[in-house]
Amino acid sequence: MIKVGCCGFCEAMNKYFQDFKLVEVQKTFYKPPKPETAGKWRKDAPSDFEFTVKAWQVITHPPASPTFRKAGIKAKDCGFFKPTSEVFDAWEETKRIAEILDARVILFQTPASFKETPENVENMRQFFSSIERDFTFVWEPRGWSKEAVKKVCEELNLVHCVDPFVAKPLYGEIAYLRLHGTHVKMYRHRYSDEELAYLLNFCRELNKEIYVLFNNVYMCEDAKRFISTLKFD
User: Fold this and answer.
1) What is the C-alpha to C-alpha distance for residues 29 and 24, in angstroms, rounded to an integer?
2) Distance in angstroms (rounded) separating the CA atoms of residues 26 and 94
3) Could you report the per-residue pLDDT of 169-180, keeping only the tens digit for each?
4) Residue 6: beta bridge partners?
5) Domains of the chain in sequence order
6) Which residues fall in a coiled-coil region (predicted)?
7) In this model, does residue 74 exceed pLDDT 90?
8) Alpha helices in 114-176 (DSSP H)
9) pTM flag (> 0.90)
């Protein structure tokens, strides 16, 4: 099964619920919404609509990250899965919203500054061995070797998230694909019909449950075009 959606609501929520069956919640990364807000989203969405959640940046990103300033958050001892109270409190808040949304998948996106070091691997090991495994955990690394990614994902049972136009997933019970555009135009890239055909073939070869999340400027249009491709496949 191939599930298609966008990283964030790309149009009015009520219309999005009509056009799509999946969304990756972005607000949980910057600053989690109030439980009442998440509850309203779940109530307003169709029963077969699926939310996935992007984990709060307090877990994954250091305080110097520009995303903290964007969210208006002041944090001190956090990020990089450090075994601190701030990090674990952030996990509890992420989990709380995920439960309200009935989400089964949580994405942990780490920045390029999260290097492939023994300390960072140990932090991940401690973090994921300390929290409840009631969800499918997805990890989107930056700049790590294939060997290290595969080893960490296998040991900690994490789904390796990739951009299908850049790499192939190395491990996971499901496939979780995030499409960020190209290196030339970055997020302003508009996917061509040929690229969407490539994406379809890429998904066919994986032969498992697949989440396809568009994360470019034209994500709404491109995601709808890909859904149309699936209907005529």
Assistant:
1) 10
2) 12
3) 999 999 999 999
4) 23, 214
5) 2-231 (3.20.20.410)
6) none
7) no
8) 118-130, 146-156
9) yes
Q: Give dist(CA 180, CA 72) in Å, integer.
A: 25
Amino acid at 145: S
The residue type found at 219 is: M
CA pair distance 25, 225, nearest whole angstrom: 21
Give the torsion through C-alpha atoms of 125, 129, 130, 135, to 10 deg: 110
The two tokens of residue 102 are 């009935």
* Distance, CA of 105 to CA of 86 (rounded, Å): 22
pLDDT category at 183 given cuts 50, 70, 90 is: low
8 A C-beta contact, residue 26 and residue 227: no
Residue pLDDT, tens place only, 111-144: 999 999 999 999 999 999 999 999 999 999 999 9
Instruction: Indicate the burial class of 233 (C-beta count within 10 angstroms; 0-12, 13-18, 19 or more).
Output: exposed
pLDDT digits (tens, 9 = 90+) for 86-111: 999 999 999 999 999 999 999 999 99
The token pair that represents 179 in the structure block: 């499409």
The answer to whether 22 and 50 have CB atoms below 8 angstroms apart is yes
The C-alpha atoms of residue 162 and residue 181 are separated, in whole angstroms, by 12
Task: Give, as one character, the DSSP assignment of residue 63.
Answer: T
Residue whose pair of structure tokens reads 């019970």 in the numeric block: 173
